[in-house]
Structures are given as structure tokens and as C-alpha cells.
Design goal:
Layout (H helix, E strand, L loop, with lengths): L14 E3 L8 E6 L9 H14 L9 E4 L3 H13 L3 E5 L5 H9 L3 E4 L10 H14 L4 E2 L6 H18 L5 E5 L4 H12 L5 E7 L33 E5 L1 H15 L5 H12 L9 E6 L13 H8 L2 H4 L7 E3 L2
Parallel strand pairs: 2-10, 3-4, 3-6, 4-5, 7-8, 7-10, 8-9
Antiparallel strand pairs: 1-2, 9-11
Helix pairs in contact: 1-2, 1-5, 2-3, 5-6, 7-8
Bound molecules: pyridoxal-5'-phosphate (PLP).
Length: about 325
Amino acid sequence: MIATRTYDLTAGDRFLRLERFHPDFSTTVKLEGLNPAGSIKLKAAREMIEAAEAQGAVAPGRHLIESTSGNLGVALASICAAKGYPVTLVTDPNANARSVRFMRALGARVVTVTDRDSAGGYLRTRIAYIRRRLAADPSLVWLNQYANPANATAHSRHTVAEILDGFGVPDWLFVGTGTSGTLMGCVRRLRELGLPTQVVAVDAVGSITFGDVPGPRWIPGIGASRVPELFHDDGSFLKVLVDEVDTVRMCRRVAREHGLLLGGSSGSALAAVHALRDRIPPGSRVLALSPDMGEGYLDTVYSDEWVTERFGPAVLDAPTTTVNHLIGI
Ligand SMILES: Cc1ncc(COP(=O)(O)O)c(C=O)c1O
């Protein structure tokens, strides 16, 4: 394929089966991080901008603003650079330093809020900052990924089609939940097509989306300190909360056993596969979405010092994940 727009290179056709992940069923990851913006959010950013353009809300010269834990910001910065839209990205200290540098290199303005909100995260602080900016300058355009239906449409339109083309119908599909755009889009399309895939929504302990008690979290991408407007639990998917310590263990295990450096939320999805291993029937074809790769996590998830400081030295030697929280199962 010869593309003429960077944001058409979404590279949604990369699948890797992890041999020996479990002896009784096959486990494959869909690698969404192998595109010019480095994550699955390139699809969401493109869909949201194109929907806003179609509605006349975004046009050359209009300044965009958005809250991001990192990946959406890089994707928006890339598309806005290509289209000539100025963009301000509001992020927090959990964002990878590399993502922030990436956004700036693409010409975006980056604002980092530093006060934790009442739920222990930063999301409400980021949103409050955006609301103040919108009040002061109503010409700013806020895409609001947490409530924007186009975020989910990116996945109902593209991600599910990529899965069916490149992998076939999964028996089980594990999806990390941040804005829940990926989850909602995949669930909607799979149900529209009448496919029997068991979807498992994966979130972090301390995120409130599934009703857990709020708590501090360190790994960007999944988790929210306020329930995203897009999230709707129709009872058709399972929900699993993964402790960040298990996310870290799983990322490090996959790196050492499979030679694959994945981002944090990919480790969460695979930790959830591990947690449900006794419920997955032998012979099943399991697919886990991997939203980004691990280079941006070398100073966190893959740093012995960072891990020891937050989770204690025992995590470094732990062979596999142990603790997981299954909700309503
Ligand atoms: C690394 C990573 N994983 C998972 C997600 C969750 O995706 P969604 O916002 O579609 O729920 C994101 C979203 O930013 C992410 O950056």
C-alpha cells in the first residue's frame, strides 16, 4: 500500500500468536501500536476529526483542545500537523515522557496538570482545565473522546473488520478500557453481526468505570477516575479488574518469554486472559488487543527502579501473575 496520508497507515492487520502462552487454547495479540502514531488511538483520532469536519465544527484555523493520557494526543498531534490545525493537549504526570516529547515534536502545545482529583486520578483535573479554557475562548473545539460517539465508531467500523479479515471470529476477545471507545465499538459491531465472541472488558484496580473504589494508578491508557459517557454495560461482556502489579508482571513475562515489548494495557489484557484461563474452554481461539508497544514504558514498567519503588522488590522475581479481580463472574 502506498498511502498519501500518515493517518491512513493504521496498520490494523498485525497479529502475533503467543506460542506457549497457555497449553490448552491459543492466545493471539492484535498489535495496534505499529503505525506512525504508535497506538490504536490513531483510528479514534482520525474518526473523531473527520466526523467533526463533516459536521462543520472543525475547519482550517480552528484550534482544537483535548484531554489525553498520551496516545490520543500523539495521534491528534500527527493528524492536526498534517491538516494544519493548531492543537492543545492536556495531559498528566502518568503520561509517558516520550509521548509528551512526541506530541511537542509534532507541533502540538502540551499542558500537564499536576493535581490529583478526588478519585485519586487526574482525569477530572484535566477536564476541569479544558472547561476553563472553553469558557474563556468559545472558539476552541473540544473533541471530548470520553463522550464522542465517533471514538467508538472507529472500532465498530475498522477494528472489528480488521479482526474478521486477519484473524477470523475470536472465541474470546480481551479489550482494555480507558474511554471505553474500543470496547463499545467492538461489542456493538460483534452483536450487530450476531457473532458469538465472548468479550472481556479489562480495567485497572482503582479505576471507577466498573464500580470499583477509586485509587491511585500509575500506568496510562486504561482506567478512569470518572465513568466515561460512552461506557454502557449491556450485560453482554465480562469485566475483569487487573492489579497494576499483575500488569507489570505480565508485561515483563511476555518480554522475556516471547521477545515482545508491549505497553502496559496490553499486559493488563494478557493478565486477564491468565486470570480466566480455567474458564476458557480448551481449543478456544483467544484474541487480546494490544493498544501500543512497550518502548514508551522503558522508564516505568520495564525499569527495575521504578517497579521496586512502587510495588516492592518481590515483583521483579515473581514468575507469573497471581491476583486478579473478576467482577460479576
Ligand atoms: C495504551 C492504551 N491502552 C488502552 C486504551 C483504552 O482505549 P479506549 O480509550 O478505547 O478505551 C488507551 C486509550 O488511550 C491506551 O492509550
